[in-house]
Amino acid sequence: MTGSMALMSFRTLCLVADATEAYSYEAISTRVFSPSQVWVLRILTVLPCFGSMLMNMLVAVDLLLPFQALFSRTILCLVVTSVLYIVAVLAGHAYGLPWPHDSAVERPLNSFSWGGVAYAIPIQIFSYGCHLNLVRTYGELEHKQSMQWVIFCIVSTGLALFAVASTSGYVIFQGMVTWIAIRTSDLGTAMTWVGTFDGVMFHFVVPGLFLVSTPSSQFATRLPRCATEMGWGVVCIGLSVAVASLSRLV
């Protein structure tokens, strides 16, 4: 579900970038948003800086264009290598271990509940948190048609890595919730708030609002048919997920 939402938001960003010929959140927002909306978006953009050094770097690349040459592709390669290393270590430890018995866990892995979906999506959203770089990469591509394959690779790779890591962790800990480095009882609550307000709003609702606002500007003729309906659809889905996630905390 999170991967499908990411696909919709990526496609939305590409449509807006084509119409406005702007290739960053900051540039797009200044063209289709009012000044007050631009500042709200800037606040949402700055919030991740307090939670992740990686996101801090991405925000700097998006907002501080004169300094973008300082951020080399080598750093991004190190980030990807670190992710692959973590997934490989988890898969290696899980290899050969028995599958947890349902009687030993509180909730089997194959069980389903909408409450569990509302809990998981705000956390999983950050597995697809590449929207800032996506727009800039789209602007650098010489052949824009190849972007659909880039998006497919992003979502499918993220889905595969997340599935391997989560399943391996489930097997390693035999279905038990184990706190290792962070020993706080309300970590899930904090992640839900951060994932809902920053993850859902920034990664899904804002791209939808971009597409909704573009037809009211001078770029309307560059959009395909039903662009407004598609934008509202992305916004409504994002807000529905946000409300469902927050309802668990209220």
How are the SSEs placed, and which strands pair?
Blueprint: H1 2-20, H2 25-32, H3 35-46, H4 53-63, H5 73-94, H6 114-124, H7 131-140, H8 147-172, H9 187-213, H10 227-247
Shape: globular
Number of self-contained structural domains: 1
Number of helices: 10
- Ends distance: 24 Å
Instruction: Report strand %.
Output: under 5%
The quaternary state of the protein chains shown equals single chain
Give the class from helix and strand content and strand pairing. mainly alpha
What does the main sheet amount to? Answer: none
Proportion of helical residues = 55-70%
| E-strand count | 0
What is the N-to-C succession of helices and strands? Answer: HHHHHHHHHH
Radius of gyration: 19 Å
What ranges have pLDDT less than 50 throughout 5 or more consecutive residues? 180-184
Mean pLDDT: 74
Pfam family, one: Aa_trans
Transmembrane segments: 38-63, 75-96, 116-135, 147-173, 193-212, 232-249
Subcellular location: Membrane
InterPro entries: AA_transpt_TM
Please tell me about this protein's structure.
The chain crosses the membrane at residues 38-63, 75-96, 116-135, 147-173, 193-212, 232-249. Residues 79-174 form the Amino acid transporter transmembrane domain. It is found in: Membrane. The protein has 250 residues and is an all-alpha fold. The chain has one domain (2-247). The chain is built from 10 helices and no strands. Helix 5 packs parallel to helix 8 (147-172) and helix 9 runs antiparallel to helix 10. The longest helix has 27 residues, at 187-213. The protein is globular, with a radius of gyration of 19 Å. The protein starts with a helix and ends with a helix. Mean pLDDT is 74; it is low at 180-184.
